[in-house]
Amino acid sequence: MKNLLFLLVIIIYSFSYGQSAKKLNKRLLAEFASEQQKQDSAFAVFSQTKREFDSLKRVTNGKMDLLSNEERRAVKSVDKTIEFISQLEELGFNPYAIIPKDDPNRKEFPRYREFIRPLKEIMRTEVKFDKVSNRLYLEGLKRKEQNVMLTEKISEYKTHSKDNAIHQENLESNMEKLLAFFPKMDSLSRYYKAVTDEFKIKGAKLESKLDALRAEYIEKGPRGFSDAYKKVFYDAFPPSPEEMIQEVEMTKAGWGDGTYDMVIAPPVEPKDQEVVYDYVEEPASFPGGSEALKTFISKNLRYPESMKEAGVQGKVYLKFVVSETGEISDVKIARGIPGCKECDTEAIRMAKTMPLWIPGKNNGKAVKSYFILPVKFQLE
């Protein structure tokens, strides 16, 4: 009788436990499906926000490119005006008789790179959605084992759900920060445009005066004018080859205030008693003439990006040897652009890629000769 009663208790307990495990399994499966649905919904919202953020980044990049170009134009117009002011002052004329002396302090000129630094940091920030795999293999497992796996998976969903909520907030916050910059970018854009327009007007007035002085200089000839006119209006009366060579071979001290970053080309030692002529009856020339030379330079000269952004312009004067067979050698800097060593290096590199020249001649015979070549770096 006692054995029968004990067996009955075991059967009832086993049945109750089985029913409890079954109910728990059913509840856990329902909770698993619910968490799965929550993740899918959160991921859909995050994906849509991410698409909007990426679209906003593209718009922001476009605005930043526009700002960069507008700053470059503003700086160029300011630099050009400053150049005209300097030239007029050098000629002994007061530029502020034409324009007001209220130019902005260049140190306070708002710089694009500093302005966009916070934007760059925001756009570099990568926000991701930590998605839990929906896969769960329960086949062949007992309910107790299934319940353990379901409990762990549900816990993983909930942990990631909290993290992804933070990621969603961060993404939305980054979007708000980008949008908050748009009015500031528009304001800076208007500032750059105003500076460009203002200094274009000032520059045009100053340039008009310089043109008048230049016309008077050309009409009356160089006699009676100061050396400053020859310097400012350098191409009004092009120097003869003899004068150019003499100018190139001047010492740096001979330039007075030392505003030119001048490097004297070292003399070339003749090899095997071969003479390199400073002057020849028929100067060496680029195949196809001066227009072909201009085309070659424009296609092969690379404007240093750092100098382009800084608005640096000017001419680099190269001195090199053209052999009897047209080879270029001993390329040196005769006169460089102040503060632009990159321009000097690029001009030399370009010259070394030139094809064979037509050699200079004396008495109809090809000879070795020096050639002075101006290489112009100018922003469009």
Structure in words:
This protein has eight helices and five strands; from the N terminus they run αααααβααββαββ. The protein has 380 residues and is of the alpha+beta class. It has two domains: 2-210; 240-377, Fusion Protein Consisting Of Minor Coat Protein, Glycine Rich Linker, Tola, And A His Tag, Chain: A, Domain 2 (2-Layer Sandwich), CATH 3.30.1150. β2 and β3 form a beta hairpin. α1 (2-90) packs antiparallel against α2 and α1 (2-90) packs parallel to α3 (143-220). The protein is elongated and about 115 Å long.
Features:
5-stranded mixed sheet, Fusion Protein Consisting Of Minor Coat Protein, Glycine Rich Linker, Tola, And A His Tag, Chain: A, Domain 2, elongated, single chain, alpha+beta, 380 residues
Shape: elongated
Q: What's the gyration radius in Å?
A: 39 Å
Task: Report the count of strand segments.
Answer: 5
Round the mean pLDDT to the nearest integer and report it: 80
Give the helices and strands as they follow along the chain.
Answer: HHHHHEHHEEHEE
Q: Which regions contain 5 or more consecutive residues with pLDDT less than 50?
A: 1-18, 250-265, 268-273
Roughly how much helix do the residues carry, as a percent range? 55-70%
The percent range for strand residues is: 5-15%
Distance between the termini: 110 Å
Structural class: alpha+beta
Tally of helical runs: 8
Largest sheet: 5 strands, mixed
Overall structural domain count: 2
